[in-house]
Write a structure and sequence with these properties.
This protein is 68% helix and 0% strand. The chain is mostly helical.
């Protein structure tokens, strides 16, 4: 999968996880619903400014829009996204504890 397709898929997946329609995301970042549709289908390529707005509107880092889940099935990609979303909501102490738990699970 090329980067344009990966980014398009990531935008759509994150938007869906957030429970946002294309119209709602468009309103959040001051773009048209057609622009969001074109981005998600890989018809158009977002500018740097639009990528920044998308990341902020979706509550993710810019890097999250480029995460390469190539070679991983959809369930694994979704689980990774859920872990990342949950981790963002933890305070520093709880995040450190969660990291230790995940590391223990990874060793087993």
């Amino acid at each position: 999968m090329d980067i344009k397709t990966r980014v398009a898929a990531r935008i759509k997946a994150i938007r869906n996880r957030r429970g946002l329609s294309q119209e709602a995301l468009a309103a959040l970042i001051d773009r048209s619903p057609d622009a969001i549709s074109n981005l998600e289908r890989g018809v158009s390529i977002p500018s740097y400014d639009t990528l920044d707005l998308l990341a902020k509107g979706l509550g993710v880092s810019l890097a999250d829009l480029f995460v390469d889940e190539a070679g991983h099935d959809a369930r694994r990609a979704e689980a990774m996204a859920k872990l990342t979303d949950a981790a963002r909501q933890l305070d520093d102490r709880m995040l450190a504890t969660a990291a230790e738990i995940v590391e223990l699970l990874a060793r087993s």
